[in-house]
Known about the structure:
The chain has a single domain, classed as GMP Synthetase, Chain A, domain 3 (2-Layer Sandwich). It is 41% helix and 22% strand. The protein has helices at 8-30, 61-76, and strands at residues 33-40, 46-53, 82-86. The chain starts with 7 loop residues before the first helix and ends in a 9-residue tail after the last strand.
Amino acid sequence: MEEREYSEEEKKLIKEIQAAVDKIRPYIQHDGGDLEFTQLEKDKKIAHVRFWGACAACVLAQDDFSYGIQSFIMDEVPELENVVLDQPDMNQSWF
Length: 95
């Protein structure tokens, strides 16, 4: 992921996205997984998130994301145009 400076508006949006992710993380962690916000696309209002742990390899992860998590985050942060699920780095330790 490319490191960059965010505008004040983007920083505010990132805080809102992180707060939404933090609201649902305990439910995901309860099943042995985790979710993290990874980036906000430059000059766009598209958030990227990634699953970790048991959720990263789960065959239902995309469905869980598409039919629940994506909608929840977009409801919590209505300024977003989209929320995208990034693929996990399968070489990185999950625990």
